[in-house]
Design brief:
CATH superfamily of the largest domain: Methylthiotransferase, N-terminal domain
Mean pLDDT: 91
CATH topology of the largest domain: Rossmann fold
Bound molecules: 5'-deoxyadenosine, iron/sulfur cluster
Strand order of the largest sheet: 2-1-3-4-5-6
Number of domains: 4
Shape: globular
Low-confidence stretches: none
Oligomer: single chain
Structural class: alpha/beta
Length: about 475
């Protein structure tokens, strides 16, 4: 049978990256292998995100490109999956008639069946059924082509029950459901046996992992993952501040493989806005949790998400956000201009903040964060940091595995937090061919930039 090619275009969060890997693996038994060329594809899949209006626009603009190819090659199959597919269902056919398959966020497991069906009788399919159990939809990947990767995402739960008023996730990803711990552990063991050193455990709200099902708690799961031989680092995302427990703080403090980093989206510094967002905490409660974290885990790195221009956000509310940022001193910030989402209650909240005002507020907090990060990075100069090496840095002068012609190999990795460290290996002058990828190394920091640090590894290594 002729081998066919699938081109997968992924938009959005880490969970979509994981889902796209699932899609790639699931399509192999029905004879599809991945291609990086749109023009040579027999099947084009776009895995979409609808968290903000911009992400949704990106999906339709890509579908426009794919449709033009289909106009020349009628055999081409186009599938749209993920959150926009779940949200829009068959309305997508009206907007983009070239689409053949619309599959929702819990239909990934059924995609190969739909593709085979379309190949036979070319009749459009919509599958946005969310009733399927998670284990029937998530297929642990057993045959990873990890290549040079050292890090992978592993979904541990899906959906969200929090219903923040601006957010579309509960509607497009459904209720919270967790995977059985054994399935997660065996997937990670498998990844590790294929060379993976770091995993990021994913869920919209990992703190409620296993609660509904009565399985182990999230900190218990972390402890089980920590026991996996050969795994070097564990990351996780995302934690809802209202559910950040002392047990989790203790886990971050004590589990040796767990990074000293937490992504703790705050969204706003104004109690009034937090209430309208349905976040279930105040600025004071948030700061108190951060202080407990910092006390239990010295050097913990905290990153956050912030929304500016939520309906009704006044200048005073925005000042509260700035005050919160100055108080907490985040290590990283993902900031977004509020955008209305279908189904999310805030769509009807008034008054809306003008686009130009949102743009100004966004710039103000991004600039503030840049100043904070830069000064935090400055403080790292002279310190020795433990880095998990991810590979060659994009600034590397050479990737030669031969003793080089004087050119330096530059490596890249991350601290036990989120900071990127680029470094050169001074230990063997002229022989930078040492295989460092996937190793933990100690680096002396010599320079600080806004988005990264730079340092050196020496002959004997350093002791911390
Ligand atoms: N508008 C802007 N940002 C949003 N986010 C979620 N919904 C919206 C929206 N309607 C942001 C939140 C969330 C992150 C993933 O996306 O900050 O934490
Ligand atoms: Fe959306 Fe709130 Fe759930 Fe996060 S916790 S996915 S912001 S509803």
């Amino acid at each position: 049978m002729k081998e066919k090619k699938v081109y997968i275009y992924t938009i959005g969060c880490q969970m979509n990256v994981y889902d796209s890997e699932q899609i790639e693996n699931l399509l192999q038994p029905v004879n599809y292998s991945k291609t990086d060329s749109l023009e040579h594809a027999d099947l084009i899949i776009v895995n979409t995100c609808s968290i903000r209006a911009k992400a949704e626009e990106k999906a339709f603009s890509f579908l426009g490109r794919a449709s033009q190819i289909k106009n020349k090659n009628h055999q081409l199959i186009i599938g749209i999956g993920g959150c926009v597919a779940q949200q829009e269902g068959e309305k997508i056919f009206k907007r983009v008639p070239q689409v053949d398959i619309v599959f929702g966020t819990r239909a990934i497991g059924r995609l190969p069946k739909h593709v085979t069906e379309i190949e036979k009788n070319r009749e459009r399919i919509v599958d946005i059924d969310m009733s399927v159990s998670l284990e029937d939809d998530l297929y642990p990947i057993t045959d990873y082509q990890t290549g040079t990767d050292i890090s992978k995402f592993v979904t541990i739960m899906r959906g969200c029950d929090n219903f923040c008023t601006y957010c579309v996730v509960p509607y497009v990803r459904g209720r919270e459901t967790s995977r059985v711990p054994e399935a997660i552990i065996s997937e990670i063991e498998n990844l590790v046996s294929n060379g993976i050193k770091e995993v990021t455990l994913l869920g919209q709200n990992v703190n409620s992992y296993g609660k509904k099902e009565g399985w182990c708690s999230f900190p218990d799961l972390l402890s089980k993952v920590n026991d996996i031989d050969g795994l070097k680092r564990i990351r996780f995302a995302t934690s809802h501040p209202k559910d950040l427990s002392d047990e989790l703080i203790q886990a971050i403090a004590s589990l040796d493989k767990l990074v000293k980093h937490i992504h703790l989206p705050v969204q706003s510094g104004s109690d009034r806005i937090l209430k309208k967002m349905n976040r279930h905490y105040t600025k004071e409660i948030y700061i108190d949790k951060v202080n407990r974290l910092k006390k239990a885990v010295p050097n913990v790195e905290i990153t956050t998400d912030m929304i500016v221009g939520f309906p009704g956000e006044s200048k005073d509310d925005f000042e509260e956000t700035i005050h919160l940022m100055k108080t907490v001193q985040f290590d990283g910030l993902f900031a977004f201009k509020y955008s209305d989402r279908p189904d999310a209650p805030a769509e009807s909240f008034m008054p809306k903040v003008y686009e130009a005002e949102k743009k100004d507020r966004l710039k103000i907090i991004l600039d503030l964060q840049e100043t904070i990060t830069r000064s935090k990075h400055q403080e790292e100069i002279g310190k020795i940091k433990e880095i998990l090496v991810e590979g060659y840095s994009k600034h590397s002068e050479t990737k030669s595995t031969e003793p080089s012609t004087g050119k330096k190999v530059q490596w890249t990795g991350r601290t036990s937090g989120i900071t990127i460290v680029n470094f050169i290996d001074d230990s063997k002058p002229g022989q930078e061919n040492e295989k460092l990828t996937g190793q933990m190394v100690k680096i002396k920091i010599e320079k600080a930039f806004s988005h990264s640090l730079w340092g050196k590894k020496n002959t004997n290594g350093y002791t911390i």
